[in-house]
Amino acid sequence: MEFTGAKLALFLGKELLVIRRDDHADIPYPNHWDLPGGGREMGESPEQCALRETQEEVGLELREQDLVWATSYISPEGDLTWFFVSHQPARLVNDVRFGSEGQGWALMAPGQYCAHPLAVPHFADRLRSYLETL
Q1: Short-list 23, 43, 20, CA closest to 33
Q2: Distance between CA atoms of residues 9 and 83, nearest Å
Q3: Which residue ranges traverse the bilayer (predicted)?
Q4: What are 96-130's pLDDT values in tens digits?
Q5: Which residues, other chains included, contact 75 with Cβ-Cβ below 8 Å and sequence gap of 6+?
Q6: Domains recognised in the chain with CATH numbers
């Protein structure tokens, strides 16, 4: 099965960078807190997909070696997707340049994201899985 997309839990210091999704009824989880990432473009590896989407959505250019944890899973829609984690210095918050998708971005404690009623549920689950490894 080919993968369809990838997400990145991006820590800037101890906090997680999150993106508020657009509030349109025709998208999954409108107005929820999301993580950088999205759909695969032709020929991309899971890592390339997550890194490209992160650069497009928040302007941060990371490298594959910056990805410290990865897992694949089946999404609620039945697609194979990837979930990555990267820990970067808090000072990178100054380099964030929000892209054209979503309503804005914020930093959130990882536990707060996992418990937030507007967190995308399966991304909160993936993040909890990672946090349990620490």
Answers
A1: 20
A2: 8
A3: none
A4: 999 988 999 999 999 999 999 999 999 999 999 99
A5: 4, 5, 81, 122
A6: 3-131 (3.90.79.10)
> For 78-104, how does the pLDDT look when each residue is reduced to its tens digit (9 = 90+)?
999 999 999 999 999 999 999 988 999
Between the alpha carbon of residue 53 and those of residues 7, 19, 129, 131, 134, the distances in Å are 8, 12, 22, 23, 26
Residue 51 Cα distances to 7, 29, 44, angstroms? 9, 22, 10
Whether the CB-CB separation of 127 and 110 falls below 8 Å is answered with yes
Q: How far is CA 85 from CA 8, 28, 35, 67, in A?
A: 6, 22, 11, 6
